[in-house]
C-alpha cells in the first residue's frame, strides 16, 4: 500500500538537485514539517487511510511557547503539550514517526524526488511544504561552527546548560525578551546586544529585564564574530553604530533576532514574497501542480497557530483531491424521481 510521508524540519539542509541515483521509495504524498500545519495535514491524511509516515527533525518553534491562551478548547496550554497532543492524534489517526532531515529535493518533474541526511531516497506524487519559521541568523564568523557548542536560539530548551555562566543575547525584540527572562533564572551574567536604541515588546517584560541586576544592555550594537577554542565559545566580538569595538568573554550566545520562513530550499523553484513566504492560492496551491504549502512557509494571513492548523487541513484535502483519493458519495437506490 502506498504511504503518506511527513518530513519534519524547520532547518532544511541543502539545495535543489537532479542527481538521484538510488532507487527511491515511492510515496503518494510527502509533507515537509511537523508544526501545527504539518501535523494537522498528517491527521487528515491518516483519517483518509493514506497511512502517513512522519519523519521528525528539529521540534516545532511552537514547543518553545510557555502559555497559549487562544487555542480553542484550552484556556491555557503550553506549546510543547499542544504539539505532543497533535502528534499523538496523528499517530492514532494512522501516522508513523521516524527521525530524518531533507538534504536534497527535485521538483522539476513528477514524481518529485527527495534525499535525506540518513541516505534515504524518496519520491512522491505530491508534496505539502509545512516547514514553518526558522530563527534568523546573524551571518557572522563562528555562528555556524559553534552552533550547539554555545550558539543557541531557544532559552526554553537550553537555558539550564548555562547555569552560573555568562551569556550574550543578540537582539532587542520579543524573542530577546523571552530568552533573557528565562536565562536570568540560570545565568550568572547576561549581556543584551540590541541593534536598536530601545527594547521592544510588552512594557512589563521590558521593565523586568531593565531592572535585573544581572543583565547589561548595550544599544545600537551588532555581533561581528563568535570566537571559541573549537570545543566551545569563549568570547563575542561586536561593534556599535559609532564603530566602537567590543569583546565580551562569554560561554554562550542566544541569537534572538526573530524568525523568517524556512523556505530557502524552494526559492529557486517557486515564487516567494520579499520575506521569503511561498506565494500560494487561498487553497494552498503553488504554480507547480502537486506542490502545496501550509502554515507560515506560505503567504497565509496573521500566522497564528490556529490558522496554520487550518491551512494544513486545507492543503491535505486539496492534495487528496489532486491524488484522486477523494471518495465518491455512494448513491442510494430510490424509486423516487429526482
Descriptive key words:
338 residues; alpha/beta; FAD/NAD(P)-binding domain; 2 domains; 9-stranded mixed β-sheet; 5-stranded parallel β-sheet; 6 helices; 19 strands; 20% helix; disordered C terminus
Layout: helices, strands, pairs:
Layout: E1 4-7, E2 15-16, E3 25-32, H1 36-47, E4 52-56, H2 79-92, E5 96-99, E6 102-106, E7 112-116, E8 121-129, E9 133-135, E10 151-152, H3 155-158, E11 166-170, H4 174-183, E12 189-193, H5 203-210, E13 215-218, E14 221-228, E15 233-240, E16 245-249, E17 252-255, E18 259-261, E19 291-293, H6 305-323
Parallel strand pairs: 1-3, 1-4, 2-6, 3-8, 4-5, 8-19, 10-17, 11-12, 11-17, 12-13
Antiparallel strand pairs: 6-7, 7-8, 9-18, 14-15, 15-16
Amino acid at each position: 500500500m502506498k504511504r503518506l510521508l511527513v518530513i519534519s524540519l524547520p532547518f532544511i539542509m541543502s539545495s535543489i538537485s537532479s542527481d538521484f541515483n538510488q532507487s527511491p521509495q515511492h510515496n503518494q504524498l510527502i509533507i515537509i514539517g511537523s508544526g501545527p500545519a504539518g501535523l494537522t495535514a498528517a491527521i487528515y491524511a491518516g483519517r483518509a487511510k493514506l497511512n502517513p509516515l512522519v519523519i521528525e527533525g528539529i521540534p516545532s518553534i511552537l514547543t518553545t511557547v510557555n502559555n497559549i491562551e487562544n487555542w480553542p478548547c484550552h484556556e491555557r496550554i503550553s506549546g510543547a503539550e499542544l504539539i505532543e497532543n497533535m502528534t499523538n492524534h496523528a499517530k492514532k489517526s494512522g501516522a508513523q514517526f521516524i527521525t530524518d532531515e531533507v538534504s536534497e529535493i527535485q521538483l522539476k518533474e513528477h514524481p518529485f524526488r527527495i534525499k535525506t541526511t540518513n541516505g534515504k531516497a524518496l519520491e512522491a506524487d505530491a508534496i505539502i511544504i509545512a516547514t514553518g519559521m526558522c530563527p534568523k541568523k546573524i551571518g557572522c564568523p563562528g555562528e555556524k561552527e559553534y552552533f550547539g557548542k554555545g550558539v543557541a536560539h531557544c532559552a526554553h530548551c537550553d537555558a539550564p546548560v548555562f547555569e552560573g555562566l555568562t551569556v550574550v543575547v543578540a537582539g532587542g525584540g520579543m524573542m530577546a525578551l523571552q530568552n533573557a527572562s528565562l536565562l536570568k533564572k540560570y545565568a550568572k551574567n547576561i549581556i543584551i546586544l540590541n541593534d536598536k536604541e530601545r527594547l521592544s515588546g510588552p512594557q512589563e517584560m521590558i521593565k523586568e529585564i531593565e531592572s535585573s541586576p544581572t543583565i547589561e544592555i548595550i544599544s545600537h550594537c551588532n555581533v561581528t564574530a563568535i570566537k571559541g577554542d573549537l570545543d566551545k565559545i569563549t568570547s563575542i566580538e561586536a561593534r556599535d553604530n559609532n564603530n566602537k569595538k567590543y569583546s565580551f568573554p562569554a560561554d554562550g550566545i542566544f541569537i534572538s533576532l526573530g524568525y523568517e520562513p524556512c523556505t530557502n530550499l524552494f526559492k529557486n523553484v517557486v515564487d516567494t514574497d520579499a520575506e521569503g513566504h511561498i506565494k500560494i492560492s487561498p487553497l494552498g496551491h503553488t504554480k507547480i501542480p502537486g506542490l502545496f504549502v501550509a502554515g507560515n512557509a506560505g503567504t497565509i494571513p496573521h500566522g497564528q497557530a490556529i490558522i496554520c492548523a487550518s491551512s494544513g487541513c486545507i492543503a491535505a484535502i486539496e492534495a487528496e483531491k489532486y491524488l484522486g483519493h477523494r471518495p465518491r458519495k455512494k448513491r442510494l437506490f430510490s424509486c423516487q424521481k429526482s
